Every structure is written in structure tokens, then in C-alpha cells.
Amino acid sequence: MRNQCLRLLLLRCHAPSAPHISQVHHFRSSTSSLLRAPAPAPQAIPIPFSLSRHFTSSTDPAVEPPKPRADQAALIEIFSKPEMSSDEIKSDLDAKNVIVSHDLILEVLKTPNIDPDVAKRIFNWVSGSQREILSCNSYNMMIGILGGNGFVKETLELIDIMKEKGYGMKRGAFDRISERFMKDGASVEVEKLKVLYATCYSSRKNKDVAGGDSGVSDCVRVGEMIRKRVWGDDVEKQLTELNVEFSSDLVNGVLGILGADPNKALIFFRWIEDSGVFKHDRHSYNALATVLGREDHSQKFWRFVDEMRSEGHEMARETYVSVSRQFLKKKMIGDAVKLYEFAANGVNKPTVEDCTLLLKKIVASEELDMDAFLKVVEVFKANGNAFTDNILEALVKSLISVGRMNECNRILAELMEAGYVPSGDVQRKIAFKLSKYGDTGKALEFVDKMMASLDYSPWISLVKGFCEEQNLDGASISVEKMVKKLGASSCGGRPIDLLVGAYCQQNRPLGAYRFVKKMVNEKGVRPRHTMYKTLTRRLLARKHFEEALDVMCMMKNHGYPADLDSFIPYLAKKGTTENAVTFTQGMTSKRSPAIPFFLRLFEAYLSAGRQSQAHDFLATCPGYVKDHADVLDLFSSKTPGAAKKKAADVAV
């Protein structure tokens, strides 16, 4: 009855007019429930044991490699330096905000023409510090790099380690390594490699790839026979007649070949146990869980992993990584979160990097699901983990990438509720990015919430972000709040400089003047001399002479000298006699400026060709200026003819 049900199921799966599997009569409670879900649409069958493009032959047509992402390039740069200590590596990773994850390692190992020594240093460091993030794919890529570059001894040693971990060698890696070994004349090593490759999928170590009649492993023969045919008595008969020993390696390999057809993989899984030819272990359970996790509908997967745990088998790290990646790729966020909870309740708990990746995907999804976010946060905390600055910074990057920086306050609030305390450096970065990428209200909300712990740097970053976005209202409010929190003495330098610079970039020196006047007169702020000079120059450039004079008065009150470098050129080229008199009277607290000032102004007038204005101003000057020998000599040397007589008359 059981086999009849299996055949009926597969006949319906292959019938063109029936795209979905009909409900099958009960032949075992767990099997029945697993087989009732709809089958996925027919897919193209991938070549068994295919690997990523990283292992393609060097004779392929040249294509321009894509640029590595920032953290990928940073990781390669860090490990390009030989003889670095573990502490130095960690320090560099923190400084560059690099979170070492499973996905990042895969991307780095895929880098075209990566230096094998750099790859070895990265792989060895991760093996020693974060071995849980290395997967079967990671090992296959690494042996491909080693073997493809002629490192025979290291390649074979790493393959032995893979065998101990239960990882198989993939076809792409095998092809790349054997091609290089043969090119180097290492025929003995090629034969060893063939044996090692064969043992990944079959217990018959000296047959198959190593030189058997068929040239194909038992694993491939069984898998291809099931894949290409409709399940029935003839398939079961042939499987029995093959006289194959169904080892754990072989079963895992067959399930891998059937990965594109989860229903067939499930039926094969049930058949070999019901037939008494194999007792399933954790490896075969995990292999099928990986296959079922590829479906668009996850009901069968969840029923199966519940059964797996009830049978006493834990989800392997490799299974979690593979299925989680599939869920996230298909935007099945709810299932990815459920999987995280499931794994966290088992022995092989997800890593910090797993949590970070999942949270990043949640905050960057089409709609921010805060319930899902909170579930992950709670599970992470319940497992004794603590949130760090690196995690928050990774989430902020994701928020910015989807234009959702305004949600940062909600995210930060939940992490702080879970015990996270952001450092001053992170507060600075968030303040800047909120003011640059968020709206004014959210940035100021962040300031209000963090007011008690904010020091000088975050405030500066907040003002800087607003200024870079030309949000002068937000910057002005931030400076006023900063003065209120830190005091006027702390705010006269950089924040005022930034804001005045932003106003001037928009050709709004009057706006800058009004703000500075308010901060000086009402808040007691003392700006820097350089800022005063900048503001004076920009005001005069727009012919705002009265306002520039007012700035000069503020400078005098703060003990700064008048900005002659800005005023004298303006008076000489554009100013009136009245302007010059007013400036002269206001520039110093003394009765009248010294002779060098007058000489400089007269020379500027004469150099600008404004002799008449020079004489008019001279006429208003005190006698000690008119009669001064240097003044008379200056006018005499630069004033021709009748003008000389006029100057002499003025002096008399």
C-alpha cells in the first residue's frame, strides 16, 4: 500500500495536466502530512555537483570582474599584511566596521585572482576564531584556491579535514584541482584525489571515479536513475538489484542530486528506511531538510524538521545557513525568523553574524516588520548574547540603503531595551546620519532621547549632517540645543563655523549674521576670530557694510582686532567717504587709529585709481594725519600734476 501511494504521488507530479500534488492516503502520519503541500512549479534540473563560477576554467573568455564590495575589499586589505596578531586583526576589523560572516567569507573566496596566501590567512584565522561560520561551500572554495594554485600538500590535508566534518568535495572543486595537478605532472596526487572524491559519495572507495568500469559513482548512478524516471516498481526493483550499500555519504549525495525535486527526495528518504536498507542519521535528516528548505512553500519543511528533532537529531550549522539563505533570498522573512528561533532552541545555535544578517534583512525588507525584529532580538538576548556597536552600525547601513533612516530611533530603542548602550562614537555616527539621511524631527528626537549621555562629538556630527544637507533650520536648532546642554563656552568654535559656512555656501551671509548675533547677544557664545573674519568678508562681498560693521563691534567686544584685510579692499574699491569715516571711528577703542592704518588705506585708494575719494577722505582726517611726512610723500609720489597741488592745499 505504501509503495502504491508513492507511485501515485509521482505519477501525479509528472502529469502535465496536474501541476500540484493531490492529497495522498495515509501511509504514515508524518509522511502524509509532508506530502500534502503543493509541489513547486517544474524547474530546470541543475547539473549534479555544480559549483559557482569561481571554479571555471582559466581558458574561459575574459570578463571584467565586478568590483568587490567595501567590506570584502577591506577584509582582503587587512589580511594582505603578513604576521599580524589576532588582536591587531580584530582591531583593524573594528576600525573598518567589518563584520566577518559566512556570506562575506564566500564573497572573499570568490574574488577573482585572489592571492592564495591572503586566502589562506583569512581561512586559517576564521577557522581558529569563528569556525562555525565556515560551511561546506567555504571549504570547497578554499581547496579550489589551494589546488588551483598548486598547493598539493595543503589541499589534501584540507580535504581530510572536510571528510572528518562530513563535508563532500564538489565537482567544480575536483575538476579545478585535478586539472592543475595533472598540468604539474602530479599523477600520483591525481589518483589520490580521485579516491578522495569518490569516498565523498560512496563507501566503495576504489571503484567509480578511481577507476571502476562505469566511471560514475554509485551516488550519481542512483540519483540520476531516480531523477530521470517516474517512481514505480521498476525503480524500486532496479535500486534493489544495484546491490548498493546505502551508506550515509551515498544517501546524502543522492538527496543532493534530487535537490531540484523535493518530492522525489522525500519519497527516496522514506523508501530506503521503510525498505530496511538504511537507518537515517543526523546527516541524512539534515540533507533532506536542506532540500525541503528550497521550496517556496515551507509547510513540509517545518513538519519535517519537527520530526527530525523528535527523532533526536539536531539541525546542523550547514543546514541552518543554507535554508536561512534560501528563505531570505525569497523574502520569506517570517520563515527565516522562525528558523532562527528553531535553531536557537537547539544545540547548534546561530552565531552573532547570523543574527546581524537576519536583522539587516528585516530592516531592509519591503515593509519593516517590528514584530519579527523584536522576536530575533529577544531570542538573541535569551541565548546570553549582547548587542554591540558593530551590529547597530550594520543595521544603520541597511536602513540607509533603503531610504529608511527615519526608523533608526525605533531600532535603537529596542536594542537599548535589550540592554545595549551605544558608545559615544556610535552616537556620533548616528547623529550625523540621522541629520543627513533622515528628517529634522527624527534627528532632534534622537538628541532629546540621548540628551543625558551625548558629549561634544555627537552634537558636532548632528550639526555637520544638517549642514551637508543644507538643512540650516535643523542645524540652527541643534546648535541652540547644544548651547543649552553643554554651555556657551563649548559651542563658539566648530558648530558656529559649520553653520556660518553652510549659510555662506548658499550665499546667505545675512542669515549667518543674524544667527551669530543672536547667539552672541542672547546666549553668550564667543565665536572664533577666523569665523568673524569669514563672515565679514562674505557680508562685504554682498555690500552689507552696516552688518559687517556690527560684526566688527562684536569682535571688539571679544577682544579681537578689526578685519582690515576685508574692510580696506572694500572701502578702496566700493566704499564711500562716509563709509571710511564710520569704519575709522569704530575700528578701535582709541581716539583714532595709528598712522600705518591710514597709509594702508590711502595706498589702497590710490592703487584702485580713486584719487578723488582718497583726497576726500584725507580732508576728514585729523591734523596729525594730514601733516604726517609719510602721508605727504605717498600722495606726492602717486598723485600727478594738479592733484599734487590739491593734496598740498589739503595739508595746508
UniProtKB/TrEMBL annotation:
The keyword Nucleotide-binding does not apply. PPR repeats lie at residues 135-169, 281-315. InterPro entries: BIR6-like, PPR_rpt, TPR-like_helical_dom_sf. The keyword Transferase does not apply. Pfam families: PPR (PF01535). This is Pentatricopeptide repeat-containing protein, mitochondrial-like protein. PROSITE patterns: PPR. Coiled coil: none annotated. It comes from the Eukaryota. PANTHER family: OS01G0970900 PROTEIN, SMALL RIBOSOMAL SUBUNIT PROTEIN MS81 (RPPR8). The lineage of its organism: Eukaryota, Viridiplantae, Streptophyta, Embryophyta, Tracheophyta. Keywords: Repeat.
